[in-house]
């Protein structure tokens, strides 16, 4: 349950090594979140993330979670919720893939779609059901501006995020009146360790900026946040650009 000041006490991260997720966890811990679950594939990186958050004062546990193993989701996530109420679930797992390779290797493209969409549908429904059963909580879904108007340059990744975004919107509508918030986060290109050295992209942002928008969106009980906020107007305009013209745009 949230504390007397409205701050969440517990956080479940799906994608426990995500830079955005960890930046969000740091902010929430600074705001008195005390119990954190990091779910992800067992790895030294997951263990290191847990140690860092423990050093910040949180009770941190790790749990083995594989987005592609959808048959395990109910059991794995059910055990987490059985330990006590969860105030915030942050779905932050996903893969970008490699567009050129994935077009040549359909099985690789399917892996992108299964991770970003199918895995999220499975985990999202399990968590939404648990939040609804406890009568409160927030489900934060890390979408992407890439799903708003899918581009030729990354249509495999973009289409998987478009599906995820549409799913999250529908789930949010279905949960209206239940006490459960669904917050969709649509960041622009995020500067991470993996993107270091690459050319700067328009409307690029940072994990810390996305984390700040998530915390603000949780406090305001928003349904959607854009990072940076100017992307809302840009994408509203781009959605109405005719396809022949859109193909020629440098986006």
From TrEMBL:
Q: What name goes with this protein? A: Decaprenylphospho-beta-D-erythro-pentofuranosid-2-ulose 2-reductase
Instruction: Give the protein family.
Output: Belongs to the short-chain dehydrogenases/reductases (SDR) family.
Report the EC number(s), separated by commas if there are several: 1.1.1.333
Q: Which UniProt keywords apply?
A: Oxidoreductase
Superkingdom in the source lineage: Bacteria
PANTHER family the record matches: 5-KETO-D-GLUCONATE 5-REDUCTASE, DECAPRENYLPHOSPHORYL-2-KETO-BETA-D-ERYTHRO-PENTOSE REDUCTASE
The record ties this protein, via InterPro entries, to: NAD(P)-bd_dom_sf, Sc_DH/Rdtase_CS, SDR_fam
EC top class named in words: oxidoreductase
Which Gene3D superfamilies does this chain map to? NAD(P)-binding Rossmann-like Domain (3.40.50.720)
- SUPFAM superfamilies from the xrefs? NAD(P)-binding Rossmann-fold domains
A Pfam family in this protein? adh_short
Among the GO molecular function terms of this UniProt record, one is: oxidoreductase activity
């Amino acid at each position: 349950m949230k504390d007397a000041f409205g701050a969440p006490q517990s956080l479940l991260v799906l994608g426990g090594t995500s830079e955005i997720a960890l930046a969000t966890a740091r902010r929430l811990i600074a705001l008195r979140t005390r119990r954190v679950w990091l779910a992800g594939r067992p790895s030294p990186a997951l263990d290191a993330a847990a140690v860092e958050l423990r050093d910040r004062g949180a009770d941190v546990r790790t749990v083995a979670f594989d987005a592609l193993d959808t048959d395990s989701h109910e059991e794995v996530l059910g055990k987490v919720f059985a330990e006590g109420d969860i105030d915030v679930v942050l779905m932050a797992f996903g893969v970008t893939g490699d567009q050129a390779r994935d077009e040549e290797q359909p099985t690789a493209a399917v892996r992108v779609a299964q991770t970003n969409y199918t895995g999220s549908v499975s985990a999202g429904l399990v968590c939404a059901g648990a939040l609804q059963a406890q009568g409160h909580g927030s489900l934060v879904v890390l979408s992407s501006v890439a799903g708003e108007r899918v581009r030729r340059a990354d249509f495999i990744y973009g289409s998987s995020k478009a599906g995820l975004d549409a799913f999250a919107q529908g789930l949010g509508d279905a949960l209206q009146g239940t006490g459960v918030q669904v917050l969709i986060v649509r960041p622009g290109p995020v500067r991470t360790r993996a993107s270091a050295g690459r050319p700067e992209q328009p409307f690029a942002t940072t994990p810390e900026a996305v984390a700040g928008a998530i915390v603000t969106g949780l406090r305001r009980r928003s349904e959607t946040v854009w990072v940076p906020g100017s992307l809302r107007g840009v994408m509203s305009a781009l959605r109405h650009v005719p396809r022949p013209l859109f193909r020629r745009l440098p986006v």
